[in-house]
Amino acid sequence: MKFIPIKSDSSELLELEKNVIVEDVVASVLQMYNASEQLPLEPWIAYLYVQGNDVLGTCAFKSPPQEGQVEIAYFVFPEYEGKGLGTFFAAFLVAQARLAFPQVIVMAQTLPENNASTRILERLNFEKTGESIHPEDGKIWQWSRR
């Protein structure tokens, strides 16, 4: 099992078992990269988590750090939910952020309800810091870990 960086020129991605979700994730990430003024550098990118040729999920930094903060996102593909992978993905991103920028504040957003994502963040010592309105999701909770 390993994390594979999603890069515009990643030949490792060609070897993976693809499905609609994987193709959508990779296309969305590459579109996000192309829309930015400059391509993000590792570790501030997106990753697929693979076992053999199967993709189990994805995790990402939404952008490189800005004003000492970086936001993370993670998604476990439905058939692999409930196995601790979400916690593993979020912990991986926190560790990568700390290695690259020890003082960075790691941020996350969740829907405003107790669910798997909120439990993951609580388990990893994130604190709920407020609420805001997201353009697509509506009301959300903001989380941070110093």
Automatic annotation (TrEMBL):
GO terms for molecular function: acyltransferase activity, transferring groups other than amino-acyl groups. Pfam families: Acetyltransf_3. It comes from the Bacteria. InterPro entries: Acyl_CoA_acyltransferase, GNAT_dom. Transmembrane segments: none annotated. SUPFAM superfamilies: Acyl-CoA N-acyltransferases (Nat) (SSF55729). Signal peptide: none annotated. Residues 1-146 form the N-acetyltransferase domain. This is N-acetyltransferase domain-containing protein. It comes from Leptospira tipperaryensis.
